[in-house]
Specification:
This is Helicase C-terminal domain-containing protein. By secondary structure, this protein is an alpha/beta fold. Helix 6 crosses helix 8 and helix 10 packs parallel to helix 13. The chain has a seven-stranded parallel beta sheet with strand order 5-6-4-9-10-3-11, sandwiched between helices. Strands 15-16-14-17 form a four-stranded parallel beta sheet, covered by helices on one side. A two-stranded antiparallel ribbon has the order 1-2.
Length: about 950
């Protein structure tokens, strides 16, 4: 839609003041705003620019007397036009008798606006002064694209801009408000700036994607063909530019990319120093490690090491830890389970409704599973041999709550509605989804053979169909979970009952997939399960959907005649795991939206659907096509409410001086305002009503039909060990706290960097300081010369629990560790020994933890995100089967816990506080779960 340029919108002020003069027959100001002092000071003009200057002076725009006359003619003609629409048309006209003057005026004003007058810079400063930068807007929306301008409350920013540029002359007499003429011009200017920034971020997104490909290709070259210092330096340079793009965005994905890159650089740096000594590390690929080994000149290695160290420091200064906000109001504890209608029915009654055996045996399911999850029943026949004495073989029967969940999802699938499965960690969401797929196949066959569906579905139609269509089912999972879910499919389903077809790279990289892999299956489509990654789905969406809006209510267009993808097929039943990862409007969001359009039954799986704000849940409801979430007016109102609340909280924190040293030392209460919580509660309650009938939510506190807990495990005991720091450690934390207090340019980024530095240095005072490059504990003497309170406590806790089993947890008294109370211990011979999991939120810290355990001769195993499935399986098996003389400590980090289930471990030591209660529950659920 055409709009006024900067020059034309400025001329509107002159025109409307002149017309006001005519209408009231009083000389107001025919040369406004050129006669206003603030504007004159900013532009350097004492008179309007179309007024000729004396022959002895040079016109600021370089105009001659004739050119001034031409411009004046254009200005006078413009100002005589009564309506804005006609002025807009006139300002864009060409070839009339004012064309030369129009061109001279627009070129000079528009160039000066962005150049000498620095008015665009002034507007950016006003955005910053109002605590509402474009970067903060992106961060508030968790997106890489600016929202529509109407979604933001920019009133305060516009007032600041008007005051900064026009001063008191631009205000109504006796008022702090701008005149209508000025306010309208500012509206145009802010709109133009918003459009320019929107275009910039879109260009940056395209360039960022291209550069990411170049970075990957450069690293691949270094690993394969060009194993030299120049290629490694090129990788470093390109990666640095890529990180500059990521830094300007506040969404979680961008921040995660920065962390991943920084960890990669750290690992490469470690490899440069460690591999040169002939030792190996496991964080980087074998190809990359081999390439680094070929950099044989020590001076080259040292030089590259220094460059990488500098880049790591730069990243640490500007990057932020992944932000996850914890709000008491943003939880779902007061939401109902969604399965209340079945709450009084026992397992036999639920099985009757499902049309299966009273003992809960599911069609197409294995009769037994490996309780540890090590053996694959599609490969290892020992699980099926009932004659063998196998202590790890366990009867596979779903729990009551899982049967109820399947019934709810099937009921919804028959009606054509979606379900958000929000069961907590460890309650078996994947088993329920696989059970639904197996039951749909069973129901189809039963209807073919008998003319009726089993159980409660007897006499019903499947949506508008007499029988369930013979179509494939789709599971979409994060790339990191693909192997884990494949293992679970094999664990539950009988070998030969379904074909599991992997789709992990997208149509562009797998162009023949649908003609080869998919159609080579000997099963009918209804017995095929496509296991796809979210990466592949997003890639397909890019190739067959056209979208530009950041609003969830503006659906994309489907590209005609695109190649076959996940989004061009009809799916009988689709389940998307970790569906909250698609909550931000962007590629993944529209990919899941497109999938919902082509799926008859749809389930989104997430134990944590709300991570930062109510928008998260709204977006999920919208792409799942739940009624009520298509109200654009409601959405706009919610955006305005939450943006306003966030700004109010920010401003009040600044006014109250919350960010001070004593507060971060824990010596002062903050009374931090929480407008966000208040508005969040309102919108969460509203969305709860819209989700009614579309959710399943149970947690560890949920009960069965007879009032017993749905999980048959004993309560866990939680102990917080509050330790007193040494003076050196306290001084180190005071140092970064004082430094943070002095930095006020970007409180949000600096605040998150503060927490990153603070949390790491709580492990050891030399971390996150630059001194960690020389930090090492190769001997007990190294450790004793430079210990830390937290690592020393870890050693004591591990030693204490490894000494004998079932000991009461240690506690603290006045900041000092003390043994737990002596209690009678159960000492049955058949009980397993204690197994301890040690969790660190930072991958980079694992190196130092291992060194400390080594010098104290504590045996341990470790898991990280770079392990192969085979290696990971071997480590878990060794950990589970280790006796008192073997390694009974397992080290994991934030990237090593995905899909990790360790019900045989009974002690969790968490070295770092998680960002949210949801993360804490996820971590605890790795151990405290059904076996």
């Amino acid at each position: 839609m055409p709009t006024f340029s900067y020059g034309s919108s400025l001329l509107n002020i002159t025109a409307e003041f002149r017309q006001r003069t005519v209408s009231v027959n009083t000389p107001v100001d025919p040369n406004a705003p050129w006669s206003w002092p603030t504007w004159q000071k900013r532009t350097g003009f004492a008179e309007p620019p179309w007024e000729a200057v004396p022959p002895t002076q040079k016109h600021p725009f370089g105009w001659t007397e004739r050119e001034c006359s031409l411009v004046k003619c254009y200005v006078d003609s413009f100002c005589k036009i009564r309506t804005r629409s006609e002025r807009l048309e006139f300002s864009r006209a060409k070839g009339d008798n004012t064309a030369e003057g129009r061109k001279l005026y627009n070129q000079a004003i528009n160039l000066s606006f962005n150049g000498k007058w620095k008015l665009v810079d002034a507007m950016h400063r006003c955005f910053r002064d109002s605590k509402k930068t474009f970067e903060s807007i992106l961060a508030d929306h968790g997106s890489r694209n600016l929202p529509e301008i109407f979604e933001e409350d920019l009133g305060e920013v516009k007032d600041l801009i008007a005051d900064s540029i026009f001063g008191e002359s631009g205000k109504k007499p006796g008022s702090s408000k701008s005149t209508p003429e000025v306010r309208k011009a500012i509206d145009y200017w802010v709109s133009n700036l918003w459009h320019a920034m929107t275009s910039k971020y879109r260009r940056d997104g395209v360039n960022m994607d291209k550069l990411a490909i170049e970075v990957a290709e450069t690293l691949h070259k270094f690993e394969t063909t060009d194993r030299n210092m120049a290629t490694l330096r090129l990788f470093l340079q390109k990666s640095g530019r890529l990180m500059q793009y990521y830094r300007q965005f506040g969404d979680i994905e961008s921040q995660a990319q920065i962390h991943e890159y920084r960890d990669k650089l750290t690992d490469i740096r470690l490899a440069l120093s460690i591999d040169m000594q002939g030792k190996t590390i496991h964080k980087i690929s074998p190809a990359l490690r081999q390439s680094l080994m070929l950099l044989s000149k020590q001076e080259d290695v040292d030089r590259m090491d220094a460059e990488i160290a500098e880049e790591i420091i730069n990243l640490s200064k500007d990057s932020v830890d992944i932000p996850v906000l914890t709000l008491d109001s943003i939880d779902l504890k007061d939401w109902e389970s969604g399965v209340e209608k079945y709450q009084t029915m026992n397992s036999e009654a639920i099985c009757a409704l499902l049309g299966i055996s009273p003992d809960g045996t599911l069609p197409h399911f294995n009769n037994y599973i490996d309780a540890v999850g090590i053996r694959d029943p599609w490969i290892d026949d020992s699980l099926h041999n009932e004659a063998l004495d196998d202590p790890d073989r366990k009867l596979l029967r779903p729990h009551w709550h899982q049967l109820v969940g399947m019934l709810k999802m099937l009921d919804s699938a028959f009606a054509g509605g979606p379900i958000l499965l929000m069961d907590g960690v460890g309650l078996g969401k994947t088993l329920q989804v696989i059970g639904v797929i197996a039951l749909l196949a069973y129901y189809r066959k039963t209807k073919q053979d008998t003319g009726q569906f089993p159980g409660i579905f007897k006499g019903k139609k499947f949506q508008e169909h007499d029988n369930i269509p013979d179509e494939a089912c789709l599971l979409v999972v994060p790339l990191s979970l693909r192997a884990q879910v494949e293992v679970e499919l094999h664990r539950y389903l009988k070998r030969g009952s379904f074909d599991v077809l992997l789709y992990d790279r997208g149509a562009l990289k797998m162009p023949d997939y649908w003609h080869t892999t998919f159609h080579m299956s000997k099963h009918a489509p209804g017995h095929r399960i496509v296991l796809a990654t979210m990466t592949a789905l997003t890639s397909d969406a890019i190739n067959c959907l056209q979208y530009a809006s950041t609003s969830p209510n503006n659906a994309p267009k489907v590209i005609e005649n695109c190649s076959p993808t996940l989004l061009t097929r009809k799916w009988l039943f689709t389940a998307v795991d970790e569906v909250h990862n698609a909550r931000n409007v962007g590629q993944s969001y529209w990919a899941v939206w497109g999938l919902r359009q082509c799926s008859r039954g749809f389930v989104g799986m997430s134990a944590t659907p709300v991570l930062t704000r109510p928008h998260d849940l709204y977006h999920i409801g919208r792409f799942m096509e739940i009624k009520g979430f298509d109200n654009a007016l409601d959405y706009q109102t919610m955006i305005r409410d939450m943006t306003k609340a966030s700004r109010l909280d920010r401003n009040e924190r600044d006014e109250r001086g919350v960010w001070n040293v004593d507060f971060f030392r824990g010596q002062e209460e903050a009374n931090i305002p929480d407008h966000v919580a208040q508005y969040s509660m309102h919108w969460m309650n509203k969305m709860r009503a819209m989700f009614e009938g579309h959710i399943i939510r149970r947690d560890s506190n949920s009960v069965t039909y007879n009032g017993k807990s749905i999980i048959n495990i004993k309560p866990y005991k939680y102990v917080a060990l509050e330790l007193a720091l040494t003076p050196t450690e306290q001084d180190g934390l005071d140092e970064i706290t004082t430094a943070f207090e002095k930095k006020s340019s970007n409180k949000r980024t600096e605040g998150q960097h503060f927490y990153l530095a603070f949390r790491r240095r709580c492990l050891h005072p030399d971390l996150h300081t630059g001194r960690e490059t020389t930090l090492a504990f190769n001997t007990l003497g190294d450790w004793e010369a430079n210990p830390s309170t937290k690592l020393a406590a870890l050693v004591r806790v591990l030693t204490y629990h490894l000494k004998s089993d079932a000991r009461s947890p240690m506690t603290t008294v006045d900041g000092e560790l003390v043994d737990g109370p002596d209690e009678p211990l159960t000492t049955e011979d058949n009980l397993p020994c204690d197994k301890i999991v040690v969790y660190s939120a930072f991958v980079i810290n694992t190196r130092y933890i291992k060194q400390v355990l080594n010098v104290h001769e504590i045996q341990y195993l470790s898991i990280d995100g770079g392990m192969t499935v085979a290696r990971r399986t071997k480590v878990i098996h060794q950990f589970r089967t280790s006796g008192v003389d073997g390694p009974r400590v397992l080290l994991v980090s934030i990237v090593g816990t995905t899909g990790l289930n360790l019900p045989f471990a009974n002690i969790l030591v968490s070295l770092d506080v998680n960002w949210s209660e949801q993360d804490e529950n996820q971590l605890r659920g790795r151990l405290w779960r059904q076996n």
